[in-house]
Design goal:
The protein is of the alpha/beta class. It has 18 helices and 15 strands.
């Protein structure tokens, strides 16, 4: 099976500017390609993870990836998929976020000996002379055509700022710059980036008169129902272990829906397709084995084998015997967390992050969704003392969320 054939077989390919040429380049040549990452947060998340897996997959096939950090484009913010304008970050915040990205990317992509390149578009974007940019780049963009792009159409009713309107031009110029300076022939990205990517290839054709630059988008990480994956009640699922612990990260993948586990395995892991085909034959309880393999594989890629093994052991202990484990997410209560030596169950749920407010905590209890050490909590006024946590106490929210609380 060729490189491109495997990408298609795994369901990764969404759109190509020229499928025949893209397939030829990936299967029979060694090319340089790039994927852009705007530094909008201090950690990558699971949406970025899919992009890094594709980058790693193509690198293993002999192609050279460019990980383009958006130090310049982040100053504006991509309007794609957003209902409101992104928060404006300071240059210092952007550089801090970019540095966090650098550390995380190196776990998944080999940047040694020039096998991959990591650069920052701030190096050229922040040096632009605005009038020169308008004359060289802006002249090639039709406002009418830009307004038909999905990234802009969805924002027109709520309002699209002029600064965001420039984003497509800057991303397109990135492709032109990398094409000229690094012989970069292809831009890759999620399918929501299709409009930006095809405009970059078109800009190269218009400015340099070349038609050998191509775009490829891959499938967005969604459930079988079309909902975006990578979100929990606490927010995004981050690659940073300080923001999403390895155990919580493992549990996210261990708890994917039955209809999604095989698709996630194809998209996000390097498990051979013939092995995945055997997993596809399993049903019902047999899918638990598949989910454990998926969770362990992805956690190992992001956090290393040791953390993946610990998370798997904790999950087996928890679901096998109901026992708490030291690798389970935990909260330590101190004397200041108690009032007159006691803490209410609602305050406890908020303290552990299992509820965002007392109101949400009350609804959880009243709905029968909370238990302490296996005993269901029915009274939202229930009080607990420090002694109740002396040996540790496991709170269960719903069917799958566990949290250990101890007294410090």
């Amino acid at each position: 099976m060729t490189v491109f054939e495997e990408l298609k077989a795994r369901g990764l390919v969404a759109q190509c500017t020229n499928e025949e040429k893209v397939q030829d380049l990936l299967d029979h040549h060694k090319i340089t390609f790039y994927i852009g990452f705007d530094a909008t947060a201090d950690s990558l998340h699971v949406g970025h993870f899919l992009q890094l897996v594709v980058m790693s997959r193509l690198q293993k096939a002999g192609h050279r990836p460019i990980a383009l950090l958006g130090g310049g484009t982040t100053m504006i913010g991509d309007p794609t998929g957003k209902t409101d304008m992104r928060k404006m970050l300071t240059p210092a915040e952007i550089e801090h976020n970019a540095e966090c990205f650098r550390k995380q990317m190196r776990r998944l992509v080999d940047f040694s000996d020039g096998k991959a390149v990591m650069i920052n578009n701030a190096d050229w974007i922040l040096k632009f002379n605005y009038m020169d940019f308008l004359r060289e780049v802006g002249v090639h963009f039709s406002v009418n055509r830009m307004l038909t792009a999905e990234c802009f159409k969805s924002r027109l009713e709520k309002g699209l700022s002029f600064i965001e309107f420039n984003y497509m031009l800057l991303q397109s110029y990135d492709f032109l710059h990398l094409y000229r300076t690094m012989d970069c022939k292809m831009q890759l990205g999620g399918d929501d980036q299709w409009s930006n990517i095809i405009n970059g290839a078109d800009l190269i054709r218009r400015v340099d008169g070349k038609d050998d630059a191509y775009g490829l988008t891959f499938t967005l990480l969604t459930t079988s129902e079309g909902k975006k994956m990578g979100k929990t009640e606490k927010g995004a699922v981050w690659l940073d272990p300080e923001k999403t612990s390895p155990y919580e990260f493992f549990q996210y993948w261990r708890n994917v829906g039955d209809a999604d586990v095989i698709r996630c395995m194809k998209l996000l892991t390097f498990i051979p397709l013939d092995e995945i085909a055997e997993y596809e034959k399993l049903e019902g309880a047999g899918l638990n084995t598949v989910k454990e393999r998926l969770a362990h594989e992805i956690t190992m890629m992001v956090h290393g084998k040791e953390e993946a093994d610990k998370a798997l052991a904790a999950a087996k202990a928890l679901f096998g015997s109901g026992a708490a484990d030291e690798n389970m997410p935990s909260t330590t209560l101190h004397s200041e967390d108690f009032t007159d030596g006691q803490i209410g169950v609602l305050a406890l749920l908020v303290k552990t992050g299992l509820a965002s407010s007392n109101g949400e905590a009350r609804k959880l209890v009243q709905g029968g969704g909370v238990s302490l050490d296996g005993e269901k909590v029915s009274d939202p006024k229930m009080m607990l003392s420090m002694q109740d946590f002396a040996q540790g106490c496991v709170i269960k929210k719903g069917k799958k969320t566990y949290h250990k609380v101890i007294a410090g």
